[in-house]
Amino acid sequence: MESRGTEYRNIFDRVIAETLSQAVRIIAANPALVIPATVILHHQRKAAAVRKKHEQDGLLVPPVMIVSITSRCNLACAGCYMAGRKEMHVAEMTPETLTSIVDQAAGFGVSVIVIAGGEPLVRKDEILRIAHAHPAILFPVFTNGLLIDAEIAGAIAHCRNIVPIISFEGFRQDTDTRRGSGVYDRLLATCALLETRDIFFGCSLTTTQANFAHVTDEAFIRRMLEAGARVFTFVEYVPMEPETENLVLTHEQKKMLQAVMSAFNEKFPALFIGFPGDEDAYGGCLAAGRGFVHISPSGDLEPCPAAPVSDANLAAVPLREALRSRVLSRIRDEHGLLTESHGGCALRANREWVRELLRLH
């Protein structure tokens, strides 16, 4: 069934290439950023061809891999997806396992490796090592920003394929309410630190019914642009904790968000990206390898961060074998069943079905 209807992958490849091309245009006046960005863009095109070759051989390689390298964090934000997974004490992948996974992914043509947590910068040395080893791969690092000091900023400035994505919730009140008193001002100081070193960085906005109007307001966008942000990632809230369903975007807000991002991409010198994005354009959910996969802190290969089920651990099996996972394959085959629902994530809303797949396989 995976051989049918593959045009969405071509669309996704084009979106990645166009996004990187737009990033090059945004930073055109800064040679220190343009040169590494051009290398990454050139590699993305080659990587797409590598993935296509593997697909013809029966191996589906996603262009994006999300790697949560730790469940540890220096904050305790309300509604945190990692806390909602109830995995606060799992053993983390060893540095050797993490290095091996990234090396294998690079060989298979993965274009973007998103580093997440917990707070990923608690393992900063490992992030820097794998990014230095693979300068043609883009490594967005989703961080709460509070561990970035002058030393870390200096190291990132010498590793231009790392893009810090700092978590905001909107202006001071929204950010401090969810993340802690004083966090907003500390994050603005972090932004200033990154900007003085000509680091290309952005902000991650967990988008809810409560803050939707604030994070999509032009006043907020302009404030973040003044702070130096050049990437805005709108992450739709998924209710990982009970009794938080009221925070999920309404259907109307989801549609409005797509229109707002499109308009902002035309109007402002920045990239505006949604996750999971406009799934209708791709024929449904991009999880389980259709567009991306997730690797848990312990090395489990999972459909996505909100669906913590796995039948393959990358500390025990090679990536090639894990990508052939029967659970992932089954989800891809039946992705049409995973229509958008009130709950922010179709896989999360159908988690009992996903768990049953794991039990069967």
Domains (count): 1
DSSP strand count: 9
CATH superfamily: Aldolase class I
Name the overall outline: globular
Mean pLDDT: 90
Overview of the molecule:
There is one protein chain. With 361 residues, the chain is α/β, with parallel strands linked by helices. The protein has a single domain, classed as TIM Barrel (Alpha-Beta Barrel), CATH 3.20.20.70. It is 45% helix and 12% strand. It contains 15 helices and 9 strands. The chain has helices spanning 7-26, 31-56, 81-84, 95-108, 124-133, 150-157, 172-179, 183-196, 212-215, 218-226, 251-267, 319-323, 326-333, 346-349, 351-360, and strands at residues 64-68, 112-116, 139-143, 162-168, 202-207, 231-236, 271-275, 292-295, 301-302. The strands form 2 sheets. A 5-stranded parallel β-sheet has the order 3-4-5-6-7. Strand 6, helix 11 (251-267) and strand 7 form a beta-alpha-beta unit. Helix 1 packs antiparallel against helix 2. The radius of gyration is 19 Å and the shape is globular. The mean pLDDT is 90.
